[in-house]
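Now for my pick.
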Amino acid sequence: MLHFQPNSGRVGDVIPFFHHGMYHAFFLTIHDDQYEEWGHAVSTDLFHWEERPLAITRGTSGPDQQRCLTGSVLFAQEQYWMFYTGERVCAEAHAQERDQHRQTHPTTICLATSVDAEHWEKYQDNPVVLRDLGKYAWGDWRDPFVFYHDAEQCYWMTITARLYDQPDGFGGCVALAKSHDLRHWDICDPIYAPGNTYPPECTDLFCMGDYWYLLYSYELTRYCIGPSPAGPWRQVQPHTFDGRSVYASKTLWDGHKRYLLGDLCSRAGETDAGAWRGGGCMTIPRELVQGPDGALYTKLPAVYEQYFRAADAVNLAEVEVQAGSWHLTPGGMSADPGLFAKVLLPGRYPAFYLEATLAVTPQTRLAGVYVNDGDYFQNRLPYQVTLDFVSGDVLFSHKYRGANAERITSTWADLTTERAVKVQIIVEGTTVEIFVDDKFSLATRAYDDLSLGRIGFFVENGALTVRDVRVMPLC
């Protein structure tokens, strides 16, 4: 099973961490659409995950009586430190009070420690960080991310917050706190306050090459780039990861490479018509690759590439032509220019890994892959990955149900008719993950029975060449 999901409930925000050869994926547990506590899974290779007991649970009273929410983990001073958001039961009468008394704060920053990253003890003087109401609004104070700042020789904590004197929807900011001992913190001015956003959630701050990166989530997982951890920040293109169905992704560094981990949301009612709801399973990790201008790209990690090398090459001389004029050889196939051309691979694969290289002529706009060509008589519409060589989109859609389409944002996939495009698609259960050119990724859901259809390729209003097709069944 490539996509980790706990035995009970769904995976919410993922909090990744690496230490002593072990990858940790802490995550918020979701039951009945409620985020509650911290789950925990471990891996030695980012491929095989083992669920461990709950890391922390909500208290019977105090600052985390309601829920234990997103935070971060680090190793320092010979032990593990977990900083998390505690949410208390807060009476509506208290909701209008703006003072520093602990009983009136709905969310606060709490601390737990451990000697083995599995058995955690909450700090007796929680919460450890309260908002400064002279700087920050009462409502948002959460999602702490902690790291050691070498130049200042102290710890930094970024916090999701809102400026006190700004209206909701404009005052979202990333607050900063500093500490020398991880228990006592000084509140500082924000490091990010653009003046036009809701609170940036689930922050992550790291250095890669010559640049610092501030990751945060608002509708999508986004990032800014700067010369220092305090900014000043700017955006490059692309500045988001995946689509709206993968939220609150964060990173870990294993001493060699940096990986991005997130959760793939699910749809209400487990149908394609359902609205997106928070949480589901963990995505396949993405390896982060840095471009020359500092832009970040995503690709399959090496351990997955190694696993999928066992995929069988498809004899393309044996495909079924359903539309258009094709020239078929064992290693490649080409469709002549025309209104529409379509081929289907032999066999049916309800779960699979597919790899292929596609190239189109300069006048061609649309080409792509049928993840499943559907079944007209069973009222099963095709699922397809469409490459738009004019807009640059990579689009996953349920044919004729465009409202539920998922896409890599326009032009960022940098598609062009002047070069071939490498496409990798992983389908397992209801999850669909798409990797393009070792630079872009997209994850989504497909709830129809995929055993009813077949994998295929198509082109509209142009010509297409397909080569190097390999398929691996995953069930």
